[in-house]
Every structure is written in C-alpha cells, then in structure tokens.
Write a structure and sequence with these properties.
single chain, about 400 residues, alpha/beta, Aspartate Aminotransferase, domain 1, Aspartate Aminotransferase, domain 2, 7-stranded mixed sheet, 4-stranded antiparallel sheet, 15 helices, 16 strands, about 15% strand, globular, binds pyridoxal-5'-phosphate, transferase, 2-amino-3-ketobutyrate coenzyme A ligase, PyrdxlP-dep_Trfase_major, pyridoxal phosphate
C-alpha cells in the first residue's frame, strides 16, 4: 500500500524543495528588464547595464528595423492564425520563410516550429523506431535529450566531443538498421565547436546520418554565417539541421528543422509539436524572412560580431584572466571557485555589467565561471568598459596580480 498524504502536504513538499534549492545556491532568480534587449539594457531598478549574457549574437533583438518589420508583417498578415499549420494556419509568409531558411542553410526543405525545443522534440519519433540507433553527444541540449526519450530507437551516448568514443558507439550500433549521429553544432557552456568534418567522415565510414542543432551557430558561424557546417566545410554532408529563430536570427522565438524533402514531408505528416501546436506568429515569420534576406546580402553583422569576439578574447587574456580557448562569441571566463563566480557576477552588476555566473552542477565541479556572450551590437567602447569592470572586480577579489 502506498502511504497517502494530505493535500496540504503536497504544497509543503514543494515549498521545502524550493527552500532547498535556495540553500544550495541553485535557485534561478529572474532579472527584470524594462527596456528592449540590446548592447545595454535598463533593469527595473533603473540602472543601465552593458549586457553580456544575451544570445543576441547579431544584435537584432531590439533593433529598430526588426520592430518595423514585425509591425509590417502584423499589418499584412494579422496578429495570429488561431490554427495549426495543416488546418488553416499556413500563410504565404510561412512558405517564404521555409524556402529562405532552406536556401540559407543549403538544405532541400524546411519545416517551422514554435521553438527549437519543439523542433528537437518532434524530429526523432517520426523518423526512427526500435530497429534504429541514435548516437548522441553526452553534452547535447536538453531538448535533444527529451526528443530522443520520445522515440523508440536504441540510444547510444558518446563522451563529449570524443571522436574515438563516437567510433566505438558506431561499432556498438552496427547491427541497427538506420544510425543517426546527433550533436549540438556549438555547445553553449564552453563555446566548443563540434568536429563536424571528423563526424561526417565517421558517418560515411559507418553508413550513419548526421543531425546538428545549430541554435548557437545559425546566422554567424562560417564565412557567410550559414553555420557550423559552413565553418567546417561540410555543407551538403549534413542530413538534418535544427535551429532557432530566437537567438542570432532575430531573437523573438520559433524554430525549424531543415533536411531533404522526404524528411520534411514526413515531419509535416507526423511530428507531434507541428501537428498539435499553433502556427508560428506571422510577425515572427515575416521578421525572420527580413533577417535572412539581410544576412544573405551582407556579412557585415557577422563580421562585426567576430571582430568584437576577437577583441574581447584577446583583451581579457591580457588582463590576466583564464578563458576557454576558441573563436566562438561565447567566452567562458574561468573563475573555478563557485562562491567567487557568484561574487564576481554580483560585483560586475554593481559596476554596470550584466553577465552570468555558472557553477556546479550546471558546469563540472571546480569549473565555475562567468560566461559572456558577444554581440554585433556592442561597440568597442562598451566592450572596453566591460573589460575595465572585469579588471576592477578581479583586483578586488584578489584574482589579478596588479
Ligand atoms: C536555445 C537552444 C535550444 C532551444 O531553442 P528555443 O528556440 O529557445 O526553444 C535548443 N538547442 C540548443 C542547442 C539551444 O542552445
């Protein structure tokens, strides 16, 4: 017999768990912003801060041109559709955006979702079953993990970014019908770029498909910003790409899956977050289309983002900080100790810089850090101001020698 408890115990239990989260320093408070998103933001305490923690890589989130494009799309297509896509929720703007994403990524076709979380949640189950194998990087995004859970395929996990282990898992999955290797194109905690050239070679050797999640890459990785597949020169060798419209590509919300026509057609028939959830708002579809047209005609924003990243990475190291080496606009400034990372982020806030401290269990024990993210919207002056705040906080906390 399960022991029964009274209804008030349910609420008391929740409160106890919340209190425990607070005590363990794992409670996530929400900063309230009263302005648009941008290089700087105004918080509800009235202070203006340089923002170093948005996924606003191309600086489009609060941009005036985006606001205008979204108003224009709303004027033309209305506020919403009150329908899923297949009943009466598909407008010309959705079809145009799907085409624009396909051509931007170099894929045959694209399907839109309300979020990348839904794209990943709805991609595996329609395509793979118990005869198949999904081979997934150990640090893949939560939405990939959840999507895999919803699918009956056999699961194989390879150690993060470890090509020898990936090969071992491909061998272990050898008797499965279809095999698909799944990885984030870029991993958000370290800014690590997946080794897609090697992954594609292994996929060829073992007859596997390759799927990448490009949420931290679409719009700015690679010479013309197409993504990690362009960065690694494997455009045309990736089978499935998922991504978000909620980071570099405008920053509102929305997601997509791009692949061959047969894959996308199957998803339109069978993918549950697509079939049973409302169509992407026309203002977002229209604005995203404007974004992709802009990015296809000029790499200016992408170039500015990478120049800002190079500047910040080299200057922060000159100050004496340790960073995870790399080239991605995610720059983990390593502080190692959890309480120090917390104090450091708090001191940055007081000095006018918004950046997030991460510590165990979000990152491995002893790997606490302040993670910053560059944006094309930052000016060099703003970055230098932020660097000065890092220097001051570093000296005050005894982390820097001079
Ligand atoms: C942000 C993110 C997602 C979720 O994207 P949404 O569009 O916000 O749902 C999925 N995968 C990765 C790797 C991400 O970084």
């Amino acid at each position: 017999m399960p022991s029964t408890t009274s209804k008030p115990d349910f609420y008391t239990g929740l409160q106890n768990n919340l209190d425990a989260l607070r005590e363990q320093g794992l409670y996530k408070p929400e900063r309230v912003i009263s302005s648009r998103q941008g290089a700087t933001v105004v918080c509800d305490d009235g202070r203006t801060l340089i923002n170093l923690c948005a996924n606003n890589y191309l600086g489009l989130s609060g941009d005036e041109a985006m606001v205008k494009a979204s108003i224009a799309a709303t004027e033309q297509y209305g506020y919403g559709l009150s329908s899923v896509r297949f009943i009466c929720g598909t407008q010309t703007v959705h079809k145009q955006l799907e085409q624009a994403i396909s051509s931007f990524l170099g894929m045959e076709d694209t399907i839109l979702y309300a979020a990348a979380f839904d794209a990943n949640g709805g991609v595996f189950e329609p395509l793979f079953d118990e005869q198949d194998a999904i081979i997934s990087d150990a640090l893949n995004h939560a939405s990939i993990i959840d999507g895999i859970r919803l699918c009956k395929a056999a699961r194989f996990r390879y150690a993060h970014n470890d090509m020898a282990d990936l090969e071992a898992q491909l061998k272990a999955a050898a008797d499965k019908r279809h095999k698909v290797i799944v990885t984030d194109g870029v991993f958000s905690m370290d800014g690590t770029i997946a080794q897609l050239d090697k992954i594609c070679d292994l996929a060829d050797k073992y007859g596997a498909l390759v799927m990448i999640d490009e949420c931290h890459a679409s719009g700015f990785m690679g010479k013309t910003g197409r993504g990690t597949h362009e960065h690694h020169n494997v455009m045309g060798r990736i089978d499935i790409i998922t991504g978000t419209l909620g980071k570099a590509l405008g920053g509102a919300m929305g997601g997509f899956t791009a692949a061959r026509r047969e894959v996308i057609e199957t998803l339109r028939q069978k993918s549950r977050p697509y079939l049973f959830s409302n169509t992407l708002a026309p203002s977002i579809a229209g604005t995203s289309l404007t974004v992709l047209n802009t990015l296809s005609s000029s790499t200016e924003l992408r170039d500015r983002l990478h120049a800002n990243t190079a500047h910040f990475r080299s200057e922060i190291v000159k100050l004496g900080f340790t960073i995870k080496p790399g080239t991605h606009p995610i720059v983990p400034v390593m502080l190692f100790d959890a309480p120090i990372a917390q104090k450091f982020a708090q001191r940055l806030y007081e000095l006018g810089v918004l950046a997030t401290g991460f510590f165990y269990p979000v990152v491995p024990m002893g790997q606490a850090r302040v993670r910053v993210q560059m944006s094309a919207a930052h000016s060099i002056e703003q970055l230098d101001q932020a660097l000065a705040a890092f220097a001051q906080a570093g000296r005050e906390l005894g982390l820097l020698k001079n």
